[in-house]
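Because discrete structure vocabularies remain unfamiliar, we reproduce here a specimen of the format, pairing a chain with its fold in token form:
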Amino acid sequence: MESAKEQLLERLESQVGLELEEIAQAISGTDDFGPWCDDRDLRQELGDLGRLHLQTFFRFVRQGSLDISALDFVRHRSVQRAHEMVPLASTLHAYFIGVRAFSDAIVRAAGTDRALREEALLLLVRVADYSAVAVMLMVESYNETVQGKRADREADRRDLLQELLTRGPGERGSLARRAAALGLEAGRSQVVAITRVGPSGSSDPSPLTRRCAAEALARASGRDPSHAFIVVRSDDVVAVLDAAGDRPACTLVEHVQEHVRSRGTVNFTCGIGTPFSSLEGFHASHEEARRALRRCSARRPIISSPDEITLFEDLAITSGEAVRRLIPARTRQALQDPELRSTL
């Protein structure tokens, strides 16, 4: 006599087509996935993926164990979605919609038969076990892909920054396309902002606080994080931000300063350069940002060059001992008198 477990599985397997259709309808009934189901190729892909899940699940239930290699298709799909920049939340949402629809199908297949309903409860536990493994693989594969792409883009941005600072714009056509892909868009009014951040009382900047500042700048910029031009260097963070508009650099940096300081006692200074709209202007904006950064202090942690820097200030900070020759020796000697200094 056929067991209740096998009878329930056979009922489910005989209705795979209906189950997959129900899953597709459930997904298309949400705002997030409605556009997907209008795409015939994608709809077919979702159907094929659901069929693979069901086949693997039935094999898992009958064998009593799950071979991780049997879920390689889950990894491949998650990597594909990461490359297509589909949010991980959307991928997981679609999966859990499918799990819910399949769970409903299990309950319906059991009907009112007591033995089948008992097997249905056990089968729902198996669904949870299977889903735990599948979701783990989805998240792991997605994050590995995204982190790998992110690391590659960060390396590309560092290389481009070095090239722009040492060799200039160079070949405009190919370089402009490469820069645009990394967040330096031609025709957009932008500025270079150089941020230095580290623990208060320490002369060594912390990699963690620099990374925190970089991520805060990316979020505040309003650009897609993968498209924000931000480079974390050994002692500072170089960012390209909008010169004006809804998120001007000065306002944005002040917001980030508050955010970073709220996470601990840190020294935060930022120099902002002059606006530019082509690669030819990047180097000058970077130099002005460095010039402004040299003038930053605890009293003035954020300075925009050249509007907030006088020529005398710049000479005084950059000339060192040479600037002392501008002050006559007798005047310097007189200024050493405490009473005279107090009077002045």
